[in-house]
Amino acid sequence: MKLHWVELENWRQHTKTRIDFDEDTTVIYGPNETGKSTVLEALSRGLFDKSNTHAEAIKHIKPLTASGAVTSTVRIEFTLNKTSYRVEKNFNLRNGTSLHKIVGEEPILLDQDDSADGQLIQLLEADLPSTRGSKPSQWGAFHW
Question: Could you give the CA distance from residue 79 to residue 75 in angstroms, rounded to a whole number?
Answer without folding.
Answer: 14
